[in-house]
């Protein structure tokens, strides 16, 4: 979807959001697997609670007006 935004553009995540995402990913040993950029793809390896926290961080980012969340169950 991010490849076909039309008149929309991806938000630049703030440093606070990026740091929060890095903390979550590091805690779950995914910081070497997942790049912190928009769109955020945390993979279905991240457990539910940190997935929700990562979504919350992005949704609450002051640069984000709209968020689309695609949830793939923990594998």
Describe what is shown at a glance:
The protein is mainly alpha-helical. Helix content is 35%, strand content 0%.
Which structural class is indicated by helix and strand composition? Answer: mainly alpha
Task: Assign a percent range to the helix content.
Answer: 25-40%
Unreliable runs: none
Helices and strands, in N-to-C order? HH
Number of strands: 0
Question: How does the SSE layout of this entry go?
Answer:
Layout: H1 15-27, H2 48-60
Describe the 3D structure.
The model has no long low-confidence stretch (mean pLDDT 88). This protein has 75 residues and is an all-alpha fold. The protein has 2 helices and no strands. Helix 1 packs antiparallel against helix 2 (48-60). The two termini are 23 Å apart. The radius of gyration is 12 Å and the shape is globular.
Characteristic terms for this protein:
35% helix, globular, 2 helices, 75 residues
